[in-house]
Amino acid sequence: MLTWSAPYRVELELHGEELGDFIRSTGYERLISERFTEAFRAEGLTGLEGFHPIEVVRVRYMRKRPRQPLAVPRYYVVWPCFGRAAVDLVLNRVRFSKPPTCTECRATGIDAIHGFVLEPGTWSGEDIFRPRGMQGDLVVSERFKDFVERHGFTNMRLTPTEQYVWDPSNLGPAPLPTA
Asked: In angstroms, what CA-CA distances link 94 with 135, 150, 163?
């Protein structure tokens, strides 16, 4: 996947009444509002890299236009870091199409997820990161969760890793490991 480089310009889609503080983009990058950026830096959280200002060139309304004129906040592009934390290959409820062959990246085809845990001793304390074995997903610390709730940031759904479910083919959870 190519890295997004300057100039940073975006066209946003608005599905509700207002734009969120945390927006998923097409690659690994995320767009965060100026309000989010300032609070993240002020509280000394870790795990985001970049913080490059972007230009919003257009907002596409996916539903009817809001009643009042839309205020478009200033956004920054960031990249959540690839952490050292690794998904525990034994204790997970993850269905793999084939077992991972690389013990470093632990990348493989994932067919379904019904909760996961990190391997003890691999997390180095980042507040937001991509774990080895699930690079497409973001994991956040309890401190990050409290930060989001305290500031009322929008456009994020935080789910405990043990309760996270992604199962597009309805395969169900992987069998529990036998002792």
From this structure: 14, 32, 12
Burial class (CB within 10 angstroms; exposed 0-12, middle 13-18, buried 19+) of 52 = middle
Count CA atoms within 13 Å of residue 54 on its CB side: 27
Mean pLDDT by 10 residues, the chain (179 residues): 83 87 89 97 97 93 72 93 86 78 77 89 95 86 97 94 90 74
Kindly tell me the burial class for residue 142, based on how many C-beta atoms sit within 10 Å of its own C-beta (0-12, 13-18, 19 or more).
exposed
Tell me the pTM. Answer: 0.85
CA–CA distances in Å: residue 82 to residues 17, 85, 120, 164, 176: 33, 9, 17, 20, 28
Which two structure tokens, joined as six digits, stand for 153? Answer: 């940031």
Residue position matching structure tokens 């937001």: 128
Rg of the chain in Å (alpha carbons): 18
Q: Compute the distance between CA of residue 131 and CA of residue 135 in angstroms, rounded to an integer.
A: 6
